[in-house]
Predict the structure.
Amino acid sequence: MSIRSVGKIYDPEGVHVVALKDCSLEIAAGEFVAIVGPSGCGKSTLLNTIAGFDGLTSGEILLDGEPLATVDKDPSPGPDRVVVFQHGALFPWKTVLENVTYGPVVQGAMTEEEANTRAREMLSRVGLNDIETAYPGQLSSGMQRRVEIIRALINNPKVLLLDEPFRAMDTVTKSASHQYLLELYDATGKTIFFITHDLEEAIFLADKVLVMTTRPGYIKKTLQVNLPRPRQYSMLASEEFLAMKAQLVEAVHEEAVKAFEAGEREMA
Amino acid sequence: MNPYIVLGLLLMAALAVGAWQQKKKALLYEISWGHQIRKTLTSKSFLLQLGGFVAFILTWEVTVKTLGLPWFNRLPGPWECLLEWLSPDPAYGISIYTEDYYTHILYSTYRATTAFVLATLLGVPMGLLMGWSRKFYDYSYPLVELIRPIPPLAWVPLAILILPGDEPAVIFVTFLVAFFVTALNTLLGVESIDESYFRAARCLGADKRRLLFDVVLPGAMPFIFTGLQISMGAAWFSLVAGEMIAAQYGLGFLIWDSYSLIQYPVIVIGMATLGVIGWISSAAVRSVGRKLMAWRERELFGA
Amino acid sequence: MARAATMTSASFGYKTRKFFMSKHFTRGSLAVIGFFALWQAGSMGLMPFMHAIPTPVTVAGAFWEFMCTGKYWQSWMDSTLRVGYGFVAAQILGIPLGLGMGWNRNFKDFTYPLFELMRPIPPLAWVPVSILFWPTNESSIAFITFIGAFFTIVVNVLGGVSAIPRQLVDAAVSFGASPRQVFWRIVLPATIPSIVTGMMVGIGITWNVVIAAEMIAGNTGLGRLTWEAYLAGYTPGIIVGMISIGLAGYVSSMAVKMIGDWLMPWKKVF
């Protein structure tokens, strides 16, 4: 995927919030890319434009060489770029199985039977098959997120978009979820676009970490993570890891201070 | 049958229900039935509740009958009404034994139910459409806001003129209130749905039509049912007014009529019956809602 | 479907202008115009069941006539006063009751069963009792309006108090607040949104009740006016009455909303 000089301005003639400006990045097929940055800097806006929930005011986004979104062409959401949401968006009124099979059935890609079989297969592969008749409200947040990821993957998307999916979790659930995601990544080789504010999480999971500036947002720094896969927890304490983290901290901190002061200015 | 015997039977029935509830609680808390009953009967909460109720009845009886205080002495007393209600040969013609009593209840219930069902069948889709399609909302909202402020009861004279007969007029007025309440609550419900659900559905390939059935309708359900309960109450409210103004038969009519005929205990009987039926209908709507929204009920313990 | 906006003073005029030029506004206006057009056409004979309904033009004429009479404005006065008395009384009695029920468990146990039993009884069912009890006609009508708003406000306040997050109270206590201080400085302000909601729903109900009460047992007021027009067979008068009542209800809702906004500078009511 290529994101070239993307700009997004909210309410151009009114409040004129420049969320993104001249933001560019490249994602190779099968790459795991993480974006970090202070809150409100535009990470989610970028994800929204990729996913197709919002249009662009400048620049373009290309997927596999084809233009996905340009200034004139408003993208629409689709199963080639499925999103996993921050607070979870499993439909509370559908069972786990119904949630997972929703995508393929609605698109007509599979019959209901085929979808059920495939869903069960995928769920059992990750050990979730005994909750298939449960409602999301009965599941813990860790399980919910896992189901949501399966729900996304069953559509065989070109890119998997994750918007701070593990943000609201405690450390224990979070590390379990990391392991889960990494296993899936190793198994499927999907292209993943992951937003987070947790620097360690970003380095641990991704091949490449991008630091976004505060508003107006663009990519300030790209960090290649050369740690071998499959990732081990012992790596978290390794020297290289800490060195990378230090770099990120420096870059992010600068932006965070700017954002903080900007917030203060807004209030005043 | 002697009214006192009937009273005794009713009391025993109430006690049986209470005992049954205690049994269920006892099973839940894993203590003996007797123990649970004793626990409840001696709890401060229960005694206060009972006390409040008893205090009210006593105050009523005392101020109206025993002391005959100036403003109060024209009202009927509680015991008098109760006896009348249970009497096989009531002085004013209305008791649980008379056919008329049930005729009135039937009329009122029929009217309220018809209006309610109509209002739901029209109001829910209206609200859903308003929330789902901006276009529809733009066209309909100004009209709704134009008509809505007019109190439904102000429609009564006009309704009587336009619609053939009094029955449809009363039902129409009742329908109107319930309709607006339902439609607006449904709209509120749709608006309350988290944007993420819409986005997730669109990612997964849902088109606009699909969104309506898969996200909008189930997502708005909680609000819809709250609205239905409110509209049920509102329906009874308008119905009674409509009946008082312009109907034959029905509990509202009964209350007004017995006032004109100076049959005061019947007023209280009518009011109490209204209260009970109103409560039952709300409870019915609530339980239907609970069934349809089973996904809300079950919570993971200690998650 | 969220409509969030950060409004700076500079953009407010812009937003208003933008709205009036938007397609939303044109659609709405079309709908309203269409409605009146249909009405006019229907009353002139195009629709069978509408023969009894006067045309908008006739109604407008009748409206003007009414406005020239003193009786019309007197009716406004009378109805509004009744609404006012009943509504205010309901707030004065209802808000403390709701707060008390929410705050003190014992008080709730004592009063709630009775309250719940009385609540389903429609306010108008109280009319005969009210007439028997209260000495004057006015007071009996005011009582009915009171009943209408009373139950609503208590239910809303009770709900509001129960919804106060425990942490707010705990935070205050940890700062050393006495129960009295907690009540006045935490519980009361936190309940204000519910009070306002209760007031807004209540005012609507109150108007409904007043009109009905006037139709049944009143001698003056907008409801009575409408009823008299009906009895006299003067249909335009009926519609004028309806519109007036609708206007009055709308105005009072706006008034309550403004009070609500004033009470809660930290939050817009809707």
Observations:
- Residues 12-42 of chain C form one domain.
